[in-house]
């Protein structure tokens, strides 16, 4: 069902219910900036209820306009620190490319930076150029994922926590210099101490880190329990069988670019992760991008992914409102 909000003297918005909530102007030639008063009111009312809002049919804001739009909400845009995938800064003000990953590969559903204890609460995607085929950004309701996970499995992971182990660089994963945005080992060590990340410099100068993190989380404002981790992405079983065999045969499990265990370091069961992947697939919602679209997510309430694509595609991202889990409490419970 469509509805219209807004005062006669302000921009009126057409709303199409669903996930994502689709918002369009009722007149042509309307920009997100000129409609911001109505947009802000809608976001305040609906983002933490619906979890995802797609702004479509507005004038194409361009990258700079997208950056301004995201910043209008009042929180400084965040830099991409302790990232797990390669990204490039597009502007000096907090806009990055979406994950730079081969076009023929998909990226599974995930909540941004759920593999650590700090993450952005809000995330925006801007489609500067839609692919000629594919390239969608599927989403899923993280509350629904939580509800559908088998309760015994959900409780086991919640109680035991998750330990993410990363080995950087060596041509297999992102270099530590890019992940930590510095060439200074002392700065890396200071960052890891502050974030409760265990760190080891290996004999060849490369880096290994290990961090205890949550499997589920509670939204700080809505009180909703959400499935909030990236175990299904970090675990070696996320690789195709041939790649698993190659990596395990060449570097061994200890030096895999990334892997994840229970919080005490014991192995996670592949069958459990396959079950989780099945639930994520069931909850996945896909919609086509149109050039100029902006998608706004509550990062805890809504996961996102990426479809393979053909032809040029440019989708950029901005993040804001960092939220930190009490890592001291998390460690004390294990």
TrEMBL record:
- Give cofactor(s), names only: Fe(2+)
Q: Does the keyword Oxidoreductase apply?
A: yes
Q: Which GO terms describe its biological process?
A: antibiotic biosynthetic process
List UniProt keywords, sorted A-Z: Antibiotic biosynthesis, Dioxygenase, Oxidoreductase
Supply the InterPro entries for this chain: AlphaKG_dependent_hydroxylases (IPR050411), TauD-like_sf (IPR042098), TauD/TfdA-like (IPR003819)
Limits of the TauD/TfdA-like domain: 26-318
Does the keyword section mention Kinase?
Answer: no
One Pfam family name is: TauD
Please give the Gene Ontology molecular function terms for this protein: 2-oxoglutarate-dependent dioxygenase activity
Report what the protein is called: TauD/TfdA family dioxygenase
């Amino acid at each position: 069902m469509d509805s219209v909000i807004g005062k006669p003297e302000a921009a009126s918005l057409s709303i199409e219910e669903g996930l994502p909530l689709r918002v369009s102007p009722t007149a042509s030639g309307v920009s997100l900036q000129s409609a911001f008063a109505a947009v802000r009111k809608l976001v305040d009312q609906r983002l933490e209820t619906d979890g995802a809002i797609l702004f479509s049919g507005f004038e194409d804001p361009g990258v700079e306009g997208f950056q301004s739009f995201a910043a209008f909400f009042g929180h400084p845009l965040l830099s991409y620190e302790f990232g797990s995938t390669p990204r490039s800064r597009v502007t000096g003000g907090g806009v990055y490319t979406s994950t730079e990953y081969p076009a023929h590969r998909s990226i599974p559903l995930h909540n941004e930076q759920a593999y650590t204890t700090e993450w952005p609460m809000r995330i925006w995607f801007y489609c500067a150029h839609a692919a000629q085929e594919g390239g969608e950004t599927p989403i899923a309701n993280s509350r629904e994922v939580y509800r559908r996970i088998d309760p015994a499995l959900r409780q086991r992971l919640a109680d035991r926590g998750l330990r993410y182990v990363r080995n950087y660089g060596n041509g297999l994963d992102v270099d530590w210099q890019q992940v930590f945005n510095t060439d200074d080992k002392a700065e890396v060590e200071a960052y890891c101490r502050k974030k409760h990340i265990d760190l080891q410099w290996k004999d060849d100068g490369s880096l290994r880190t290990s961090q205890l993190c949550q499997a589920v989380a509670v939204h700080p404002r809505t009180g909703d329990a959400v499935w909030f981790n990236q175990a299904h992405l970090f675990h070696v079983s996320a690789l195709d069988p041939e790649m698993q065999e190659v990596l395990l045969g060449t570097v061994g499990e200890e030096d895999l670019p990334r892997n994840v265990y229970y919080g005490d370091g014991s192995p996670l069961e592949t069958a459990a992760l396959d079950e989780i992947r099945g639930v994520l697939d069931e909850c996945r919602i896909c919609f086509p991008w149109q050039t100029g679209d902006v998608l706004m997510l509550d990062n805890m309430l809504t996961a996102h992914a990426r479809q393979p694509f053909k032809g040029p595609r440019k989708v950029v991202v901005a993040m804001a409102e960092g939220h930190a889990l009490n890592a001291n409490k998390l460690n004390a419970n294990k």
